[in-house]
Amino acid sequence: MTFENINIRNILPTAISNNAIIVDVRTPELFYTKHIPLAINLPLEKITEGQISLPKARTLITYCDTGGASIRAAKMLAQKGYRVINCVGGINNYNGSTTRG
């Protein structure tokens, strides 16, 4: 299975138009420090271990710090049958507002 790539700057409009779940694949510590609004935290390590409990009926949008971990997560999730959109650039290139906690 394949996945689509978008620029991180388009994450929120893409999430809204696709009724997607935004998935931050960074560690819980980094997620707590700052994350994109509406995002949930599902670390790459848990995806690698198969600890995924997200609905397959929803599109997932993955992001990380720079784009490397999210592309690996996108590949794994797509192989498991999820519809995935990956963000190129990561949160380090995101200019929108972020949330803490």
Please give a structural write-up.
This protein is an alpha/beta fold and 101 residues long. It has a single domain, classed as 3-Layer(aba) Sandwich (Oxidized Rhodanese, domain 1). The protein is 31% helix and 19% strand. The chain is built from four helices and five strands. It is globular, with a radius of gyration of 12 Å. The model has no long low-confidence stretch (mean pLDDT 96).
Quick overview:
By secondary structure, this protein is of the alpha/beta class.
Give the topology.
Blueprint: E1 4-7, H1 11-18, E2 21-24, H2 28-33, E3 40-41, H3 44-48, E4 60-63, H4 68-79, E5 84-88
Parallel strand pairs: 1-5, 2-3, 2-4, 4-5
